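Slide 14.
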Amino acid sequence: ELVPWLGSRWLLTNLVHDLVLGVGLYAAATGIMGHKARQRSYCNLPGYSQHCLYSAYLSASICGGITACLYLFSGLYCLSRRCRDQRDII
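Slide 15: predicted structure.
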């Protein structure tokens, strides 16, 4: 629905969204989850029987890192299209 409204600015909007918002926010979330996982690394000790969210934080940081990389690749692709003066999405 936004494509007709944005018109030729669609590629630039997608580029800003992917590189600034996507990569920036997912990289920040990955850093926070990695920090939380590092704080709870004591859960890996043998014999530790208490409930711990270490694996959840670690999984979240890995998924956030993968998503940030995908947004980065998408943004770089949009940037390369913009440099070749392809302004539309079709």
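Speaker note: Helices lie at 2-6, 10-39, 54-83.
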